[in-house]
Specification:
Helices cover 44% and strands 13% of the residues. The protein is of the alpha/beta class. Helix 5 links the parallel strand 5 (127-129) and strand 6 (151-153). Helix 3 packs parallel to helix 4 (110-119) and helix 5 (132-138) packs parallel to helix 6.
Length: 285
């Protein structure tokens, strides 16, 4: 087992000590993505999570999420987050949030794309970009020249294909080097998901050895983005958060598969086994 360490818990603390994560996403038919990211973030130890979601869908999140706060955001007219939400999000990020996850279920509608284009360059806190956020980014790669050097991208090979213009086959044949070159070029943390996930900042790299085929299931990536975001707001660097995050995510999946089998594994099971995975890391101290 890798010798990863999680931030210790001190006696004289409160929820604010462990960070506040802002998860931005959601659209019709894709509310579950935000919920999975939020719940995995809480299970990984951050103090507070707020979900920034389309205002007309807010009631759904109020019902589905008990421990998570919500922030209803202005829409583009199709029940997706729109450009009028930029100012509200920036104010919340500046005054309240310690880090951001953007993309789970957010959609690729034109109004959402413009929201994304205007929001990202103004964020000064660490950001994890996942799912639809990566599709929006692929169409607007110039954004990465304008942002802080603390962005974490978490593509699967299909999303990496959109980002690079390379075929999935080309990416899979040379995963490590392609991830390193992209991270170096755009000054980001790259998490290229899949068998033996590659994590790199363009200089150093880590090849993950946890995880199993049962984790190839809808929502697994949303769980990972929440885990990484949670570690970031607790004070780890984006690179350390990405490395520990993919290890912890895979370990929880392995523990779930051992109990439930790979065929029946769903994303929520990974969240359910996060406490056991975290205990295993803590016992290695």
């Amino acid at each position: 087992m890798e010798s990863f360490h999680l931030p210790p818990r001190k006696k004289d603390t409160h929820k604010g000590t462990y960070g506040h994560l802002f998860v931005i996403g959601g659209s019709p038919g894709l509310t579950g993505a935000v919920c999975l990211a939020c719940l995995s973030a809480l299970r990984t130890g951050c103090g507070m999570v707020t979900a920034g979601v389309p205002e007309s869908l807010n009631d759904i999140f109020e019902v589905k999420l008990t421990e998570v706060m919500t922030k209803p955001l202005s829409e583009s007219g199709r029940k997706t987050i729109g450009i009028l939400a930029v100012e509200k999000c920036l104010e919340f990020i500046e005054k309240t949030a310690d880090g951001v996850v953007i993309g789970p279920g957010i959609s690729t509608e034109s109004g959402t794309e413009e929201f994304f284009r205007q929001l990202l360059p103004e964020i000064k806190k660490p950001v994890v970009i996942d799912a639809d956020g990566l599709k929006l980014l692929a169409k607007n790669l110039d954004i990465l020249k304008k942002v802080e050097k603390n962005f974490v991208l978490t593509p699967h090979p299909g999303e990496m294909s959109h980002l690079t213009g390379l075929s999935i086959a080309q990416i899979q044949e040379n995963r490590k080097n392609i991830a390193i070159e992209f991270a170096k070029k755009y000054k980001v943390i790259m998490v290229l998901k899949g068998n033996k996930t590659v994590v790199t900042d363009g200089q150093s790299f880590y090849i993950n050895k946890t995880g199993n085929p049962g984790m190839a299931t809808a929502g697994s990536g949303d769980v990972l983005s929440g885990i990484i975001g949670s570690l970031i707001v607790q004070g780890l660097t984006p690179y350390e958060s990405a490395k520990i995050g993919v290890y912890l995510h895979g370990l929880a999946g392995d523990l779930a598969a051992k109990k439930l089998g790979q065929y029946s594994l769903i994303a929520g099971d990974i969240i359910d086994f996060l406490p056991v995975a975290i205990r295993k890391i803590e016992q290695k101290k």
